[in-house]
Specification:
mainly alpha; Lysozyme; two-stranded antiparallel ribbon; 9 helices; Mannosyl-glycoprotein endo-beta-N-acetylglucosamidase-like domain-containing protein
């Protein structure tokens, strides 16, 4: 609505060949109407481009979240519904959007067999010795750590590729095929650079 009003205002200026602005008592500046129109058109175009970028990002986030939830839903996994949170935290911590759900699947079959002695830990975080108040909180904490944004664990995860993060998370000396297993789950969930339109259409 605001953009439409601005466009109508620009169109109304076509009748004005020149606008005059006074400065003090003695000087005035004449600004040609076409200069004003160009500046206002530029502002409108910028606002529209910004809105389109936001819309595209929102569609992308929703498509990724739905892909995660669809994976959980098809396999009747308890973590269904956490897709949006996983995508949000992955973006915040610059992680591959598929990493968190894939780890949760590998560690607990998507929450079916989460840590027994603590609550809401579907990631096996802290060797199953750390519990969380909710799955959402667990997602926040694990994502922050894997993204290298926790000073206490940054030396293990900061500035590393997805495979390097997984090797630090569960070293090959402990689980030899862990990295390949998680990467395989990630590929099943979706492509790293998925097409949001295609993902929404197939959901």
């Amino acid at each position: 609505m605001k953009n439409n009003n601005l466009i109508r205002f620009v169109q109304s200026l076509i009748l004005l060949p020149v606008m005059t602005f006074s400065i003090g008592n003695t000087h005035s500046i004449e600004i040609p109407q076409n200069v004003l129109v160009q500046k206002l058109n530029s502002t409108v175009s910028g606002a529209l481009a910004f809105n389109q970028a936001l819309d595209s990002e929102t569609k992308d986030q929703k498509a990724k979240a739905e892909a995660i939830d669809a994976y959980f839903r098809e396999r009747k996994m308890p973590l269904e519904g956490t897709g949006a949170k996983m995508v949000e935290e992955a973006a915040r911590n610059e992680l591959d959007w598929r990493l968190l759900p894939a780890i949760a699947v590998r560690e607990s079959t998507g929450g079916k067999f989460e840590c027994k002695k603590v609550s809401n830990n579907a990631f096996g975080w802290g060797s199953c010795k750390i519990g969380f108040e909710s799955n959402e909180k667990a997602i926040e904490v694990v994502a922050k750590n894997l993204g290298g944004n926790n000073p206490k664990t940054a030396r293990h995860y900061d500035d590393k590729t997805t495979k390097e993060i997984l090797r630090a998370y569960n070293p090959p000396s402990i689980v030899p095929k862990y990295v390949d297993q998680v990467i395989s789950i990630m590929d099943t969930i979706g492509d790293a650079d998925m097409n949001p339109t295609l993902a929404i259409a197939s959901a």
